Every structure is written in structure tokens, then in C-alpha cells.
Amino acid sequence: MKTAVLLGAGGLGCPAALALRDEARARGLSLQLVIVDDDRIDGSNLSRQILYTAAEVGLPKAEVAARKLGAVARVARFDASTAAALLAGADVVLDGTDNFEARFRANDEAVARRLPLVHGAALGWTGQLLTILPGRTACLRCLFEGPPPEGSVPACAEAGVLSPLCGLVGAAMARAAMQVLLGAAEAGVLSRWDALRGTERPLAVKRDPSCAACGRVAS
Are 35 and 73 in contact, with CB atoms under 8 Å apart? Predict the structure, then answer.
């Protein structure tokens, strides 16, 4: 059995979890999906977080999503103190978190443990995806070094996000994770979607030998 750990059960996590569950079933792959989120369902979530209903407002996202998908719930905050326990046994990690601090934490913890990571993000009209194979391909810090200064870029809750874009990026995350699990990962390319213009732009990325996260991870 393979294990996929999903960080975040929100706008990206919901479609990613659903698509990954269905893809594994279609391919006959025995998969344990672990859903990590410490947040509760809010009425404002319902337009884009497709696993939840109005009757479930106030309930823990991880528990509701896990119950509907036959997954394992971890109602916990992903941080330095919980990372080891939450990532134990993982074959791939999917990052569906919604803020810069959490994304870079997911990158650093996955790289340190040499765990393949599928990074997804969506903000406004723009979405992106990067599959990271520690020691082989660039990580998030190779591209951006670190989170932007606090307040310089609006968070998802402030800027909003196009609901269909969440579905597109979430489904792409599930596809990328399945490729990792099947040993056929397409990594080393940052995919970016501009929903306003209807375009997708792939960008080949290279490892930074001086990267603070992966620079010392052997190939």
C-alpha cells in the first residue's frame, strides 16, 4: 500500500483529494490518503471547497473530508513540532496549504526527509504546480528563496481566488502525485496557469547549488 499525505483540505485540497482517490481506484492502486488540516468549515468556504455542505459548517475539515473519501484524518497544525509524526510513512506529500509560511515549511520538511512533494498554489486568476524530487530537481526555495515580506503579497483570504481554478490546480496535483506513486514523475517544470487569459506556461527550473533547503541533499 502507498501513502499520500495531503496538507490542507481547502480549495486545492478538496479537489486534489477527490481526484487522487478516484485515480487510485481506477488504476487499482492500494492507497492510504492522510488529510492534515486544523481548520473548521466556514460558510465562506463552500463556493470552492467542494467536499463540504452548509450543514457541516463548524466541523473540522479533515474529519469531514476523510469520512467522505475513506481517508485518515489528522486534525493538527503542520509545523516543526508535528511534521515528523504527520509525514511518517509517506510516499508522496501534496501541499494544498494557503499561505507562504506553510508552503515553505512543507517544502523544507519534505526536502529534509527526501519525500517527493507536489506543490500547488492558486491566488486570484493565477495557479501554479511544481513536483519536487529532493536531490534530483529544484525545490521551492531554489525558485523563490523564501516567503515574501509580510504584507507585500495579499493572502488568498484577501485577494480571493477563482473557484474553477482551484479545481484545475487540485486535479493537476492529484495527477502529479499519482505519477510519483507510479514511478513516472514529471518533475523539474513549474506549470503556471493564467485563468484570465486562458493560458498555461511551463517553465523548466534548475536546482540552485546554494539553496538553503536542498543544496546539501545528495542526488
Answer: yes
If phi over 0 gives left and psi between -120 and 50 gives alpha, with beta otherwise, what is residue 119?
A: beta
- The CATH class that applies to domain 2-204 reads alpha beta
Domain positions in the chain are 2-204
Question: For residue 29, how far is the Cα from the chain centroid?
Answer: 20
pLDDT in tens, 96-126: 998 889 999 999 999 999 999 999 999 999 9
How would you list the strands of the sheet with 126-132, edge to edge?
72-74, 31-36, 2-7, 92-95, 117-123, 126-132, 189-194, 199-204
Residue type, 216: R
Positions in the chain whose pLDDT score sits under 70? 151-159, 218-219
Helices (H) and strands (E) in the chain, counts: 7, 8
What pTM value is reported for the model?
0.94
Residue carrying the nine cell digits 480549495: 11
How far does the chain reach from its first CA to its final CA, in angstroms? 26
**DSSP string spanning 42-79?**
-GGGTTT-TT--GGGTTSBHHHHHHHHHT-EEE-S--S
In the Cβ-directed half-sphere of 193, how many Cα atoms lie within 13 Å? 22
